[in-house]
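Please discuss these two lines.
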Amino acid sequence: MPEPISEIAPYLEAQVPGFEGPITEVQKTAQGQSNPTFILTAASGKYVLRRKPEGELLKSAHAVDREFRVLSALRDTDVPVPDALHLCEDESVLGTMFYVMSFIEGRNWVDPRLKDETNEMRAAVYDSMNATLAALHSVDVEAVGLGDYGPPGNYFERQVARWTKQYRATETETLKPMEDLIAWLEAQTPPEGPARLVHGDWRIDNLLFDPAGTCNAVLDWELSTLGHPLADLGSQIMQWQLPPGSEGRGLMGVDRAALGIPSDAEYAERYAARAGLADVPDLDYPVAFAFFRMAAIIQGVKKRALDGNASNPEAGLRMGAYVPMFAQAALARIK
């Protein structure tokens, strides 16, 4: 039988330099619907463990080994990441593949309004997010050993195909907005740009910040690959089109100027300047694709909740209600 997390200290002592048990506390984080995440408190300090969820999984999903690889590759770049300490592929230890990384103290916001913060702090956080994203897309993938991190070909074309396949695998009913969106995305694929390392889920709740508002860790690399950098920018701007609050986590209807938060256009302009682009890019396709991919992801969460193996079944079912809404929002943007 696999050991519970609290009992794997001897294993980690043998695999992680400097680790000393016992593990005195295991705290499951609120985030991590896809890959359950735990903060471990041991005699030698705090660590973070991320593992695949239990149960039957889609073949290409929950790739904690890819997360470990990209964290290792980025260690000495301008992209702030935790230290990747150990990858365990032996499922007999915990029942699923997992990895351990360093614990980084940092502030994390789920609500992009940054409620209760000053305008100066909001401005600093958004500017640092922007600068970190440009730094990510400036990484020399060959130099850091990630030249083969993604398949060749048009990024958006293969991503639409991938997420359509995963959506079909977890589909629980036919949704016309999703069918219309898939058809449009397949017909309007933009030409491929230069391959860059893309995060795949770029949003504020996947980042940590120091007390001055500077990003000090980028987390949750499960969807990272080589591809079109505008996918990351589109993903973040998509998030801001959703309603504010704990469910939508967006900026819809928010007076951003009054809060010191840049508009979509201002944010895109800053990114274009930092990334060395001649013009501010058209983001209709990247934003529509981001809506589609998120709809496909939460459809998977809904299916796992219905099957009884979601990390948080109640939250998974709530999230599932957003699938048609995301598709409709994408169609509204492109029409």
